[in-house]
TrEMBL record:
Residues 484-509 have a biased composition (Polar residues). It comes from Nematostella vectensis. Residues 480-509 are annotated as: Disordered. Residues 8-438 form the Major facilitator superfamily (MFS) profile domain. PANTHER family: INNER MEMBRANE TRANSPORT PROTEIN YAJR, MAJOR FACILITATOR SUPERFAMILY (MFS) PROFILE DOMAIN-CONTAINING PROTEIN. This is Major facilitator superfamily (MFS) profile domain-containing protein.
Length: 509
């Protein structure tokens, strides 16, 4: 890989890491900040999910912008939006406004909508056969961010919580806001310059072809099906993941002090990172994206089963059940999202003659479903599953004082079976879909006759160069981007009858 390509790939992965860090670094403090500003506890799930909600609706738009203006422009715009949101959040306690907390996370999520652009870049720069490892590496970077957030928050957990009559400086930088100041510094001082000066747009043959929906009906049908399955599965994953504190505190009584909360998030982040690393090292032709998607759904079903409420009084056994459930669910996340993300990216490659110059829009729409599921799952779960006083216990239950002895989680044995049932349905539908439509071989030429005639012959230089408008740098394009993988380049003789692009598609199921 050329040096410029390596630096651009590093930038994309660091962007994914930074956005995941931005999401996870506030986990230890945002709920307490919300409660300290007298926010309604029932609305906390919406506040938690507002980041993903705005990310969902911004993702297709940023994908479209990347198609029109280039990936670099879209990523820089996203970084600035994310920074503006974190700035609002950082001043929320000083202003004393719960609305500012909500607005800050919502605006920051707009910038995080660009997370799909990492997959767009990898789709444009990696061949179909190595796509799984490329996207798995990107997901590993995100997993590092999810793990690093709580670890970073632990470093500032010793900071004092500000009082209402504290100085303005203390209200601005304190236990609640220190994490976002660190994230803001990373975005403006490291990520923004790295993107501006080191990232280079990629140019691919599909960008020269104008998209028309009338010729993309097959891709639209595949996208609709996979988007629906992704939304349902993501909602189930995050409905339980966002309530790990409620389950650990209310059902298993594992924590009674702020200093112990790191165990909750670090254990989940560590399991996610380790699983992502294993996927990155093992995904290839035999252990396919389809297989990892299925394994992810199966692992989540096992995790939901493990975290259900059982009539067991043994503290050690309950603790083991909880951490096994966390490990299974988070490992399921790593397998599923890497698997289905690669699966759809390969589908875009297979149907490049239909996606044409709208790859960013399609992949952004796919990410829309994931982000919307991350918003819907926690929001619905917080309305149904909550901590309450156990009527059979005389001990005190207090979330504010972190006294779990008399607590229980209401409706947990209704919620978990429903989530498990939905996941089983998603699994069955995905397997059926793959059997019917998963094995696709395309035979496509995206180039005109003139372009084919200009291509180098055997033994000649296999690189073509394009000058990016307004950039002043040369962007390299490897030969596998000129014709999609698994395609057979038509001979010059077979194309001599026409000077227009020839597209032939065959599918085997």
């Amino acid at each position: 890989m050329a040096t410029k390509a390596m630096i651009s790939t590093f930038t994309v992965n660091y962007f994914g890491f930074s956005m995941a860090l931005d999401y996870s670094v506030v986990l230890l403090t945002i709920q307490e900040l919300w409660e300290s500003l007298d926010g309604d506890f029932k609305l906390y799930g919406f506040v938690f999910g507002s980041y993903a909600l705005s990310q969902a609706f911004m993702s297709p738009l940023l994908g479209y912008i990347s198609d029109a203006r280039g990936l670099k422009f879209a990523i820089i715009l996203a970084i600035l939006l994310n920074g503006a949101g974190n700035l609002l959040y950082a001043f929320s306690y000083a202003v004393g406004s719960v609305n500012m907390v909500l607005a800050g996370r919502f605006v920051a999520g707009l910038g995080a909508g660009a997370i799909a652009l990492g997959v767009v870049y990898l789709t444009n720069t990696s061949s179909r056969d190595v796509r799984g490892r490329a996207i798995a590496g990107f997901k590993l970077s995100q997993a590092g961010g999810y793990l690093g957030g709580p670890l970073l928050a632990m470093a500032i957990i010793s900071l004092k919580k500000p009082s209402k009559d504290a100085s303005f400086a203390t209200k601005v930088f304190n236990f609640y806001t220190a994490p976002v100041w660190l994230i803001l510094s990373n975005a403006l001082l490291i990520l923004l310059p790295l993107t501006k000066f080191c990232f280079k747009n990629t140019l691919s043959s599909h960008m020269a072809l104008k998209y028309t929906h009338r010729e993309a009906k097959e891709l639209l049908a595949h996208t609709l099906m996979l988007v629906l399955l992704l939304f349902l599965a993501t909602s189930c994953f995050w409905a339980i993941t966002s309530d790990l504190f409620i389950i650990a505190f209310g059902q298993y009584h594992l924590f009674n002090a702020n200093e112990q909360l790191w165990k909750l998030y670090v254990s989940a982040g560590a399991a996610l990172f380790i699983a992502s690393l294993i996927v990155c090292l093992t995904i290839h032709r035999r252990i396919t994206p389809f297989l990892y998607t299925v394994l992810g759904l199966v692992f989540n079903i096992a995790g939901l089963t493990s975290m259900a409420k059982y009539n067991i009084n043994d503290k050690l056994y309950l603790t083991i059940l909880y951490y096994v459930g966390v490990a299974m669910s988070t490992s399921g996340c790593a397998c599923f999202f890497t698997g289905i993300g690669t699966y759809y990216s390969q589908k875009i490659t297979d149907l490049s003659h239909q996606a044409r110059n709208r790859r960013g829009l399609f992949l952004g729409t796919f990410n829309f479903a994931e982000a919307l599921g991350r918003a819907a799952g926690p929001t619905v779960a917080s309305l149904v599953m909550h901590i309450q006083q156990n009527p059979d216990s005389s001990k005190e239950c207090s979330v504010d004082k972190l006294i779990p002895d008399g607590c229980e989680v209401g409706n947990i044995n209704y919620v978990l079976p429903v989530l498990g049932g939905i996941t089983v349905i998603v699994l069955a539908l995905f397997v059926f879909y793959h059997i019917k439509h998963g094995k696709c071989r395309t035979d496509v030429s995206l180039l005109s006759l003139e372009e084919l005639q200009a291509m180098p012959g055997p033994g000649e230089d296999r690189q073509m160069f394009f000058r990016e408008e307004g950039d002043g740098e040369e962007a390299s394009l490897s030969i596998y981007e000129l014709t999609p993988p698994q395609s057979r380049t038509p001979s010059r003789a077979s194309l001599s009858y026409s000077s227009k692009t020839s597209i032939n598609t065959s599918k085997t199921v």
